[in-house]
Amino acid sequence: MIEVKNLTKSYGPVVAVNNVSFTAEKGHVYGFLGPNGAGKSTTMNMICGCLAPTEGEVTIGGFDIIEDAVEAKRHIGYLPEIPPLYPDMTPFEMLEFVGRAKKLKGAELYDEIEEVMEMTGTIDVADRLIKNLSKGYKQRVGIAVALMGDPEVIILDEPTVGLDPIQIMEIRDLIRELGKDHTVILSSHILQEIAAVCDYVIMISKGCIVEADTLDNLLGNAEDKNAALEQAFIRLAGESLDAGAAYAMEKEAAKKEKLEEKAARRSGRKVKVASKKGAAYYEEEYVENEDESEDEYSYEEESEDEDEEYTPLFKSSKNSQKKGGKRK
Prior knowledge:
The protein is an alpha/beta fold and about 325 residues long. Helix content is about 35%, strand content about 25%. It is built from 11 helices and 14 strands. Helix 3 (about 90-100) packs across helix 4 (about 105-120) and helix 4 (about 105-120) crosses helix 5. It starts with a strand and ends in a 5-residue tail after the last helix.
């Protein structure tokens, strides 16, 4: 069982995950659904102990992922968005390495390798170097690695990326089968993926959970599950599936507006000022209107005291020649 309480992750002023809480029980497949940039992968990384949370706690099988990391991670099989594979190993060698790391030995180890390779359809490429495999087969090997040791909790971040349609159907069948005896969390921004394999949906938007319920409760008696799930997500999240980009544009617009307001408070004109990069670089700054000529000057950078006056360093060479010398 997974229990997440008030999980938060901040990067300076940016809050990537905000006060996320949920519980995942054995025997279910949980779909973690949200647009790109919603905080899905960040949450997955914190649940697996790959990223320390700013606040909150995660327990796996009763063990805290930070305080009892070794015991908690024994219960987890994790496939990140980019499978962490050694390119100069074969799939067999990779699984053997992972199995030994999980304390499997002898016949138990090799029986486990054979079982997971059969489940993931990687037996035919068992002796090929991973770096020579297609993206789809690399993804399959990553899933096989996550299954080694028969963990109670399986966390898959975008597991069908790079697979062809037939492979996708096979992996979805595998996930449904795993969900009968494991706790499975599937992260995706693809509605069809969630509707096809999950029986419980957790919707996340802008780092916050906006809904957590069974798929049946969310969809009701809808004939078209994909369309119904899309409508439910748009209604609950208040945004379309490309909201990650829209949110980024919104933040950029707010930042621009703030800068414009700051500039407006300095009613005046723009001049070029010397940059910290050196005398050859200049930046534009607003200064208060003064009874100066319209000639172009280069100024020293503004000090911390905004009321301090600018001191001209030199006048443009063209105007200096006209007026017979440098400005004093």
